[in-house]
Automatic annotation (TrEMBL):
Pfam family, one: Ribosomal_S27
Subunit structure: Part of the 30S ribosomal subunit.
Keywords: Metal-binding, Ribonucleoprotein, Ribosomal protein, Zinc, Zinc-finger
Record carries keyword GTP-binding: no
Organism in which the protein naturally occurs: Thermogymnomonas acidicola
A single MF term (Gene Ontology): zinc ion binding
Chain segments annotated as coiled-coil in the UniProt record: none
Gene that encodes it: rps27ae
Cofactor annotation remark: Binds 1 zinc ion per subunit.
Superkingdom, taxonomy of origin: Archaea
GO CC annotations on file: ribonucleoprotein complex; ribosome
Upper classification of the organism: Archaea, Methanobacteriati, Thermoplasmatota, Thermoplasmata, Thermoplasmatales
Residue spans crossing the bilayer: none
Name recorded for this polypeptide: Small ribosomal subunit protein eS31
Entry cofactors: Zn(2+)
């Protein structure tokens, strides 16, 4: 992943696409995995909530 993929331009503002690590602070982004968000620097991990079968069927075709 390149640094330019972590940011997006909206008009004249720069918007961050990913969340920061709550332990390390600004500048250290959390990596997005299929089932979790994790920090490669300190090892902080947040698990994503699993969707039930009903919620998955609503969103897809």
């Amino acid at each position: 992943m390149q640094k330019r993929e972590l940011y997006k331009l909206e008009g004249e503002k720069v918007v961050r696409e990913r969340r920061y690590c709550p332990r390390c602070g600004p500048g250290v982004f959390l990596a997005e995995h299929e089932d979790r968000l994790s920090c490669g620097r300190c090892g902080y991990t947040e698990f994503k909530k699993k969707q039930t079968g009903k919620e998955e069927k609503k969103g897809g075709r």
